[in-house]
Amino acid sequence: MRQQLFVVGDIHGEYDMLVKLLEQWDKKTQTLLFVGDLADRGLNSKACIELVYRLVAAGDAICLTGNHEQLFLQFLEQPDTFYGNYLINGGASTISSLLPDLRQSTAQPTEIAEKIKDQYPDLIAFISSMPLYFEWHHYLFVHAGVDLSLPDWKETPTKDFYWIREPFHRGINQTGKVIVFGHTPTPGLHNADYNYDIWESDNKIGIDGGAVFGGILHGLVFDQNTLVAHYGVQKKNDVPECITYIEGT
Predict the structure, then answer these.
(1) Which pTM was predicted?
(2) Which residues lie below 8 Å from residue 226, measured CB to CB, with a gap of 6+?
(3) Which residues, 6+ apart, have CB-to-CB distance to 151 below 8 Å?
(4) What SS3 state is found at 143?
(5) Are the C-beta atoms of residues 36 and 63 closer than 8 Å to each other?
(6) Band of pLDDT at residue 104, cut at 50, 70 and 90
(7) Beta bridge pairs of residue 236
(8) Packing angle, helices 91-98 and 109-119, rounded to 10
(9) Mean pLDDT, residues 129-147
């Protein structure tokens, strides 16, 4: 581990925003940490997955699993059962990105899943191996949250690490950790439709700025004690522009 963590919110196929945000990353002093949901909804899911895969393989990054990684794996495992659900959750864009020559309107779910498994075994293995959470000093990084009603948050049911919402947001954080999470776009946490800023409450920090919905892709830099830098990328006339909230030193 390097001295700092550069933590990236939910990307959802917004490759150009990701590349713009990573201009702020200092490879020498910062390990990247992605909180999951690399793909679905946005147009360049394949490029996002491949870039993060390379960064993790090189030892430059850690990537947690999100609910969209789990939806993808679920579809591949049982395509006839979960194809419709995957499409509802933005999976059509990921399929198009991975299989650009495929006619989804006529292809059968099993055919689609088999083509993806045949062409992308390394990416599937990578997605399958993503951890549920990452602890670092007094921080806990997770995609969705943990069950704060349990005496030990590590006993959280597996699915809750990448799916939980209101019980975690409203729960009292007695873990002794600052919990940094994505999953729920921050306008929902702020109860304000267009407030894409990070959300902070009770030693919880929500960083899913709704990038794929016209919002902000957040990048927060932590050292072992505190937040030391905060960047964001938002599109203006379809061009990603960087926002500096806290300038790193």
Answers:
(1) 0.97
(2) none
(3) none
(4) coil
(5) yes
(6) confident
(7) 239
(8) 50
(9) 98
